[in-house]
Design goal:
single chain, 273 residues, alpha/beta, UDP N-Acetylglucosamine Acyltransferase, domain 1, 8-stranded mixed sheet, 6-stranded parallel sheet, 5 helices, 32% helix, binds coenzyme A
């Protein structure tokens, strides 16, 4: 039930004069709140339809026009990324660059020479790259080189990983199958969150870090830039691990590791020279 201003003013006047019962206005207010609720529901439906439209459009674009990417690297890590990329269906690998001059194909893709050819590849219109090198230091160097040329280093997230909607995944980072990244975790750029690893709430993982397969970080853990958390390691809640350090396979980290060193064991301690 809606009223124009004149009707409203007349009713207001009549109410003041005591000729209209106040229940009339209660009814009017309840109608208004119903209309508001309806508007909220309609807005939600509109937003959902818009999202659906975007999803359909994106799927259509990826199906018929996937983004062309060059794979930089041809080692074991690169094989896993080829798998993820093919499953995501969002990118089309046009070929690879490799430091191995002996091979001419990799996972069925053509090799376009070594990394020194990346500038020429970019000039041909391939402007996106998958940074497929497992070594953290080399990955950092290559990331710098790719960015300087102008490449967009793409982020790969396996469809069978679980990433909280409040988690942040940096550019060029790869999330492998079975990995779980929980609420408010922040993963830096060009990092690796490997198969079946768990990164719990509020963890902060630096750029170029590598959380190896099967390792578990409890809540609020921080891992510095370029650090490797070895296969199957566990880290106690809130622990801080310095940058460019290594935690050996199967370690249990219960205290902060503040030096830039290699640690292993249960509890993890610094490796003696
Ligand atoms: C810690 C690490 C870096 C040490 O490597 P390294 O310098 O080559 O050391 P070595 O293998 O020569 O081992 C040196 C000693 O440390 C011991 N050691 C090495 N790693 C260990 C570990 N994780 N836990 C317990 N002891 C370990 C070795 O048994 C050896 O002991 P010894 O001298 O009594 O025989 C390596 O063992 C490691 O764990 N790397 C992580 C690998 C990983 O998870 N990669 C991710 C792949 S996706």
């Amino acid at each position: 039930m809606s009223m124009d201003f004149f009707e409203y003013a007349t009713k207001q006047k009549a109410l003041l004069a005591g000729t209209v019962p106040s229940s009339f206005f209660e009814l009017e207010n309840s109608n208004r709140s119903l209309a508001n609720k309806l508007k909220i529901v309609l807005d939600k439906i509109k937003a959902k339809l818009f999202k659906m439209k975007l999803n359909i459009r994106d799927k259509f674009i990826y199906k018929f026009m996937p983004k062309k990417v060059i794979l930089v690297g041809t080692g074991g890590h690169a094989k896993v990324l080829v798998d993820i990329c093919e499953r995501m269906g969002k990118f089309k690998i046009v070929g690879c660059t490799s430091q191995d001059s002996e091979i001419s194909r990799f996972c069925g893709y053509k090799i376009y020479g070594s990394d020194s050819n990346l500038e020429a590849i970019f000039a041909k219109g391939i402007t996106s790259a998958i940074l497929a090198v497992g070594d953290n230091k080399i990955r950092k160097k290559l990331a710098k080189m790719l960015k300087e040329i102008g490449f967009d280093v793409v982020t790969l997230i396996h469809p069978n990983s679980i990433v909280s909607k409040s988690a942040r995944i940096g550019k060029g980072t790869c999330v492998m199958p079975g990995a779980v990244i929980n609420a408010d975790a922040k993963i830096g750029d060009c990092a690796i969150v490997n198969t079946n690893s768990n990164i719990d709430h509020d963890c902060v993982i630096g750029d170029y870090a590598h959380i190896a397969p099967g390792s578990s970080l409890a809540g609020n853990v921080s891992v510095g830039e370029g650090t490797l958390i070895g296969v199957g390691s566990s880290v106690k809640p809130g622990v801080k691990i310095n940058k460019w350090s290594v935690v050996g396979v199967g370690s249990t980290v219960v205290r902060d590791l503040l030096k830039q060193k290699t640690y292993f064991g249960n509890p993890a301690t610094e490796r003696k020279a």
